[in-house]
Please model this.
Amino acid sequence: MNYNAWFQCSEGCNDTYPLTEIIYRCKNCDGLLEVRHDIDALKSRRADDWKCLFEQRYMRTKYPYGSGVWGKKELVCPTIDDDNIISMYEGGTNLFWAERFGEQLGAPDLWIKQCGNSHTGSFKDLGMTVLVSMVKQIIAEGRDIRAVMCASTGDTSAALAAYASAAGIPAVILLPKEKVTREQLIQPIANGALTLSLETDFDGCMDVVQKLAARKDFYLANSINSLRIEGQKTISIEIVQQFDWDVPDWIIIPGGNLGNVSALGLGFLIMQELGIIDKLPRIACAQAERANPLYRSYQTGFTEFHAITAQSTQATAIQIGNPVSVHRAIRTLRRFDGIVDQATEEELANAAARADRTGLFNCPHTGVALAVLIKMIARKQILPDDRVIVISTANGLKFPNFKVGYHNVAPGEPLPRYLNKPLELEADYEGVLKQIDAHLNA
Model:
């Protein structure tokens, strides 16, 4: 069976374009484009047969179908040639049963989808494998693309640099100066990308990169490009597959540029259309209080949206005041009976530290989602029998200053709730034993 997919305007005029066209917005109305699939062709395969196919491929060695993304190729990007796929076997990440943490909160069926356990340490790999593979396909068909580029708060740049390097395609990275961690900065540098540190914030970088992308010899890799969304939607499919095709009650997603909200929604919707699932979960989007334009819109019932200037937050990857995917995210939240909530700096730091004490090691953005989880349980929006999935977007090892700063308080500063400082002692048996006894008996 030959399957097909194309770009289509998401704003109602329904103009269509081939996936190999270098285009990000509708020529007619300037609306964002979405990837659309030939659903009738996909329905020619029974739901049980789709499940069987995905199970046969999942994390196996036949390239590229062992990838968590390319194992769902027909639902993601069926028109690309296998020879042009650049994959690092992204996906297949752990669905961590946060049993102890959930029991403490009163939500024992709590799971953390560890999307940061990926090649470059974040969920961005899932979308970048699709985008860079399509660029390779476009080049193979004779088009001249000099470089692939993105604006980033850190994780997108790491993913783009790695996949572009593997493909042999030049990458250009625009980062806001001194607003990404050292660990995030070194990733594109190590992979050989031209890394430009601009005196602005992410929104300023995004403005510049979109102007550059107006040239057809540069290809834009931000989530305004819906090929990224197609890869990221496999998170939903993989979660359901990991639960033997059962749908959870709630998905909680940290939200910055808001591509992941619409991406996960698309994953559930295509499964429902194909009969793989028969219900949808509810979706909660979690924003940092200092970068919360969607939360403010939610307070108006989404009747208004105003971009803001995002303030400095520990959740640097979602420090975005003018998200490009806002309208797609709002449509998704309405479709999924969704909510939006926010977390203060203290709330996100304490939530991450509390969860860490039960075996996790959370990035600050996951801390935002966990803080919203705690609020939702307190409000009884999440009930004890609900199955809840928190999307962990990045590996905590990419944010050591966030961790060190929490547990290394300067004299005179307030002590964090879950502080755990090392004790400096003489190398003396009795003194060491005394401290151990005092700790265990506290």
